[in-house]
Structure formats: C-alpha cells, structure tokens
Specification:
Strand order of the largest sheet: 3-4-7-10-8
Largest sheet: 5 strands, mixed, barrel
Helix content: 10-25%
Oligomer: single chain
Length: about 210
Amino acid sequence: MSWRTLTLILALCAAGWWFSPHSPRVPAAPAWATHEIPHCPLPPRAQDRDTPLQSVVPPTLPPFRLRDATLRPLAGFSIDARVLSREDYATGRESRLSPTDLALGWGAMRDDAVLAQLDIRQSARWFTYRWRGAPPLPPDAIVRSAANMHMIPANRSVATTLRGIRAGDRVRIDGWLVEADAGDGWRWRSSLTREDTGSGACEVVFVCAIARE
C-alpha cells in the first residue's frame, strides 16, 4: 500500500469520525436572516409523561426567518418522550436546517419490555421498526406512539444539547411544527398528526428548548 493510499484512507476515516455522533463537533444552528432578532417563544407545555401536546399558533407569532429558509409555524409542539434512535445528517438540503433526526416514543413505546422486541432503525430521513413473531403492541398502537422527527435547533444552546442526546434518554422538547420555504420554491412541511405513516409523516420541529430529563 502506498503512502498516498494510506493517507487517503486515514483522511476518509477522520472525516467519517468528525461527522459521526461520536465526534466533539457541534453542528451550528441555522443562521437567522441578518435583519432578524433571534426569538423562539415557548408553546404550551405538555405534562410529564403525557402524550405530545399540539397547540394553536398565536395570531401574533410571525414566521421565523432564517438565512436558508423561512419557517412558518403550523402548530405549537411540546413532547416528553423516550429517544428510540437518533441519526445525524451532513448532506442534503435538509441538513442545512436539521442536522439530526430523533425517533421518539411515548406511552407504551417507552417501555423496555416493548422496545426489547423491536428492531428500530433510521436512514434517509426515515424511521423503521420490525419485530419477530407477534408484535409487542398492535401495529396501529405503535404508529400512534412513536414518530421520526426532524430537529431544527433555534440556537447554539439547543444545538449543543441536541448533540448529546442518545438512544434511551428521556427528553423534553418544546417548539413549533413548521413549514420551511426557500426563495427558489423548495419546501419542507411538517406532519400535523401523530397517526400517519409513509411520506410526509415526519414532524419538522423548530426546537426552542430541549432538555434531557
């Protein structure tokens, strides 16, 4: 093996590590538009260990204007959940806003006995699960109690906390379900129900606050 080949392999390994969840790198929160004063008010808060709370957007709440897109709030969103899986993204247009997806579970999808029977994975901004034999819950109950969510950190503090979240953690997330619109026509819209599946079923969350609990 030549030194050039070895150097290339080491460089690729270093790059892979740097963009992996084990890297100390904290992806920056998306930049706000230069004329905007960063402000991300909190929505009504869900009760501890309750189902996710979706609330009406106040008529006085303006869009969040970021450099790469304008985020139009569709609903307030608050959730106390268990992290089933996480996946980081450094490529694709969506990664400019959302560097991390969290697969979150609530209700019965918090339980160790249930989760031990499920194989949960994320890739390409999707969340999948499967089981062997009989499912630990009725499939429609799994759908209603878990979702893949695209996290858009509102500021560096949120981005730093998000970087440390791992599968198995209990987290509280408060923010807004949004539709992202860019000047060239690109659009990314959140689901507004916890009961859908397939394309468009993920939540796009502008995260004002996040905490490991």
